[in-house]
Amino acid sequence: MEKHFDQWSSCDDNMEIQIDSSHDETCVNAERSFVYNSIPLYSEEEAQALAKRLDNDETFKEAMKILIAWLERGECNEINSACFYFLIRLCWNRVEKLQVEEKEYQEKIKRLKKSVVSRSYCIQLKLIEIEEIFSTIEKQNLWTCFTQDHLEKIQEMREDLLNFKRIILEDCVLEKESDDKNIEDEQAEI
């Protein structure tokens, strides 16, 4: 009896999965149908209007959906292929703009990295100068001049300074290694 129940339970589960998946397909098809129904049919006038929308940042995404829908519907043929090529070319112009934009961002990142490294070196130099204070105290054996509380605080300050200096140096080394690896990767691509 239990085996029979398991078979029915399994069958019910499979039916639920089939119903869910067919419901999902229906929703997708309905959504696609709505999108296609809201998209105008291809005509030269619509293509001209679409070209203007493809050239505008604010309307590009919606216009691209229309172009894709026209292509999916099979509205491109030998007669109007030049018009479709022009529309596709407008989309490609967007890619070229994005490539320029990406290159500008990469250049900006390089400049910022150089600035960060430069500032980091300046901080390191200042830390070395400040470290000289602690070295002088040690060299002149001035420890006896300070109270026990002062000595503890001075030791804390010195340790903090050395830790801070070490962290900055490690960051610089990691950044340099990353830059070297990127240069090697770029050279390997060439």
TrEMBL record:
| Domain of life from the UniProt record | Eukaryota
The name this protein carries in UniProt is Ecto-NOX disulfide-thiol exchanger 1 like protein
GO molecular function annotation: oxidoreductase activity
Give any single GO term for biological process: ultradian rhythm
What are the GO cellular component annotations? Answer: external side of plasma membrane
Q: Which PANTHER family match?
A: ECTO-NOX DISULFIDE-THIOL EXCHANGER, ECTO-NOX DISULFIDE-THIOL EXCHANGER 1-LIKE PROTEIN
